[in-house]
Hints:
signal; Immunoglobulin-like; binds calcium ion; GH13_cat_dom; TIM Barrel
Amino acid sequence: xxxxxxxxxxxxxxxxxxxxxxxxxxxxxxxxxxxxxxxxxxxxxxxxxxxxxxxxxxxxxxxxxxxxxxxxxxxxxxxxxxxxxxxxxxxxxxxxxxxxxxxxxxxxxxxxxxxxxxxxxxxxxxxxxxxxxxxxxxxxxxxxxxxxxxxxxxxxxxxxxxxxxxxxxxxxxxxxxxxxxxxxxxxxxxxxxxxxxxxxxxxxxxxxxxxxxxxxxxxxxxxxxxxxxxxxxxxxxxxxxxxxxxxxxxxxxxxxxxxxxxxxxxxxxxxxxxxxxxxxxxxxxxxxxxxxxxxxxxxxxxxxxxxxxxxxxxxxxxxxxxxxxxxxxxxxxxxxxxxxxxxxxxxxxxxxxxxxxxxxxxxxxxxxxxxxxxxxxxxxxxxxxxxxxxxxxxxxxxxxxxxxxxxxxxxxxxxxxxxxxxxxxxxxxxxxxxxxxxxxxxxxxxxxxxxxxxxxxxxxxxxxxxxxxxxxxxxxxxxxxxxxxxxxxxxxxxxxxxxxxxxxxxxxxxxxxxxxxxxxxxxxxxxxxxxxxxxxxxxxxxxxxxxxxxxxxxxxxxxxxxxxxxx
Length: 567
Ligand SMILES: *[C@@H]1O[C@H](CO)[C@@H](O)[C@H](O)[C@H]1NC(C)=O
Ligand SMILES: CC(=O)N[C@H]1CO[C@H](CO)[C@@H](O)[C@@H]1O
Ligand SMILES: [Ca+2]
Ligand SMILES: [Ca+2]
């Protein structure tokens, strides 16, 4: 079994590299993180769009369900062409979300409750309506090089001007767009309205450090860095840009999948930049005190690259390079698939750095209920929260929200709208999200069944199971995850996945998840007697009931259980 061989290795690594000889667990290592999509969390003024006062009014809920820190998708001034991922002023709150005063009040409330606030940091690009871009277009005040500009190439046959390279943007279509005023092409890895900044320019780097300092001074606990792999692009020494090779994955030349992104993703300079930012945060902490400020990195990159983003020898980068592997599971996934997804991370990241985090959703991906099936939401929530390390929950997954079929509206027409609909708080008007006459995206039709108020306190509801899991995360057995033998996981049959958490002393938890639609019978799993401490809705047991694992364990279809043994 892989865990055994790995544990030998871990002991060696710890002995060599534990900083200051201490193996204390920092807050983020085992944290319960929660992503808020601010437009859809809580509307305070009835305009149908979520806002900061709304978030502030719901922080007590995050406390109630055991959340350590929440990260907010962008709330900065923006023309909202990509709903805040196109920032026009990095140091201002967009009026739709409120004011800087609202922001400060939200932070003060969060501090009083002991909840950490992490902001989205979008360094790769700004909005084309950002003052920096306008200055760069007009070559003003030293902003000439602030973005990635190029004259383009002349076609030898036709003499026509063409983009500098064949690069395709993430959302499709060319990455280069001609600017009439400056008479040059500019680069945009995402939308045309999101020009990429030039990170080889010290001025850009300074401006963005200032942005970080601005929000740190207002009390934030860290940043989630957007689109990390896209920050740098490769450029030839003569200033030209090489074409990217075909990937073979797509026949459509306008599709992002058409090329293999060897020159526009995961360039070595990006790793160095993350180390710079981490150093900046550590220095800030030294000067101002308080807990560690964290960096979460959004990077759809191979785990070897993520490992470099985390650190290399003495150099430290993002504490939480986000692990999206479990998002690729679907309704057909077996226990072996689950194990493989986990192995992919553990065999590199855990083996090298003893760190783990598990993301199960975000605003770009269908919800769990749609990827896995509604009857498997609890199963995935159990797995994610029972694994060692930090868990990252997308708002609404803790109550089993599903995607909503949306039509184009005046405000939005984005293929990702379905997973961005209003949070379901209660079985009342607009699910308690807004008192307004309408909401920016429709509220799910099944909100009367899936909402916080209806699920709260109800045994085996998705919310109650989620809360139970957060309680477990605080137990000594779950805290002891860096101790040798503290955890293991395996597929004990095609459909049953097992996780063991132990403090190696007097407490052990066993988690069994049956992903299959049949009854599973397992024999001789352990030589101890356990108590049922957490049950999902398909479970015929009672809490507190005992089970001797020397005998057989019978699991119902889609049943997940947590067992506890104590000496
Ligand atoms: C980025 O800025 C640096 C420093 O100002 C400059 O040397 C370089 O040419 C710029 N790169 C691009 C792509 O504009
Ligand atoms: C998950 C996530 O944050 N995705 C964002 C990545 O960056 C692009 C461009 O900023 C956004 O459009 C995505 O929503
Ligand atoms: Ca509002
Ligand atoms: Ca870039």
